Amino acid sequence: MEKTVKILITGKLHDIALKLLNNQPSELAVSESLKIVYIPDAPRDIILKEIEDTHVLISRSETDVDAELLRKAKKLSVVARAAVGYGNIDCDLATEMGILVVNTPGKNTNSAAELTMGLLLALVRKIPQAHMSTSAGGWNRHKFSGTELGDKTIGIVGLGNVGHRVAKFAKGFDMRVIAYDPYISEDVFRKNQAERKNTLEELLAECDVLSVHVPLNKETKGMISLVELKKMRKGGIILNAARGGIVAERALLEVLNEGYIVGAAIDTFDNEPKPLQELIAHPNVIVTPHIGASTAEAQYRIGETIAIQVLKALRGEIVDYPVNLPHVSLLGSNDLKVFSVLSEKVSRFGAQIFDFQPAILKLTVKANLNKEDLQVLKLSAIKGFLSHASEEFVSYVNAEKILQRKGLEFEIEMTPSSSAKNELLFEVYGKGTSEKISVGAVLYDGKFARLSSINDFLFEIELDNDLIVMQNHDRPGVIGDVGSYLAKNNVNIAQFELSRNRRGGMAMSLIRIDGDLESEVVAGLRKLPNLISARLVSGL
Ligand SMILES: NC(=O)C1=CN([C@@H]2O[C@H](COP(=O)(O)OP(=O)(O)OC[C@H]3O[C@@H](n4cnc5c(N)ncnc54)[C@H](O)[C@@H]3O)[C@@H](O)[C@H]2O)C=CC1
Ligand SMILES: O=C(O)CCC(=O)C(=O)O
Asked: Which residues form the signal peptide (predicted)?
């Protein structure tokens, strides 16, 4: 029966996301049928109920994906954050549970940076206050006098996607741009014409406007507290369109009340959707309800990207924007995609053809790959092996962790390939000297994948459907007996390959069959004359 995947969507998404999920383009089509439950703005208790049988959660900032939610999610394999910040997702627990977390970096950058500049202009020119007064019938040209941005200094904390775009816009207003970001190279400062400040203190001492653009984490929570605010010049301005909590709200209120800081513009709050009342009602503060990403353009890009990430994840491909995928950044080429699927299949095959206690898994790759791509093949091989040999849900996310927990070692080796043929050899070793199996595969032209060997026996057979792996003495009549037995049991053979080490010696056959195969049918094969073993290899 076709499997149904439940996708729970708890934040408002652009229609493009639903369109892509409902009408999947052929290159992203999934074999499961999708049940989409779209409940933006649903109360928490409904989300906690719905999550129990959900496979994929797509959320925005209003849904805390915390331990309470994750522990109820018995079937969850993907959390897709339709945004950049994932501070409200318990990524450590998600990783431990093998749940992939993805996000959409860069897709709302421009919108967030434009809102930041909008807030700044609105603040220094008192636009919201002037609008309220004028639209109510007033005409006060003195009360709403403001200050210019030109020649003022903006201090940017976090010169990432949003920060460097704010730097660019601020330059357009003839501002002096200084920035503090200890995690990026000198080049990024130079390219964005931002003067580098080596410490936060240096930055604070020199800026008229402080704008934070860092993620919220243990290091950045409260990084702008009373001490830091007091290190700014008197008369400064604070902008926060990143995350509530980066600027300590009570401290900000205190310096605003003192008149030490003369204005603040805030889009993101500690306690959303119920921010600190005294702060949002302060006459020198202007606020928006976390709308940095709320533009048609950003939401289109995010909707499109998140749907693609979800479909890729469901197809078992490596996603473009993983948050918690160890060491894997982007799945570069289509060839690599095909190669990684082959790596997973070969190891899943290998996991089903040995009878000893495994100790070491080894993947030998003949190809010309960079380090990251090799890592993709390694994770695919571990995933393939474990997903057969483990009760746990295994994904690219937790594969290495589970392997370690099982006490298995993994070795990987690469030798260069000089042709359009890439090769894989997956080996499983036990502790004893004779305890070893190997499965080889070849990928021709980045497209055509074939199983090429099992131990010393050579083959050329496609790796799909169920396969019977059979060992027998090389005697006349064996193939006929097997063919009639399978026919009697209504099993249609799609491909039959025989390989033998020497005439009259040992032979190994691979039988690719159409449809599913009952294990009793395979057990019956073992009773035929001259058969040594017959195994079913499935899940390819
Ligand atoms: N208001 C809204 O709706 C939106 C808010 N955001 C928020 O804006 C923030 C920045 O987003 P992006 O620029 O896309 O992220 P990003 O990851 O591209 O940039 C963050 C930068 O902060 C730097 N950083 C990290 N820790 C730091 C520290 N302790 N001190 C100084 N710099 C540090 C990093 O090196 C990086 O360059 C995030 O919190 C994101 O969630 C982003 C988009 C929309
Ligand atoms: O619009 C949203 O859901 C949140 C946007 C945001 O804050 C982010 O991308 O980090």
From this structure: none
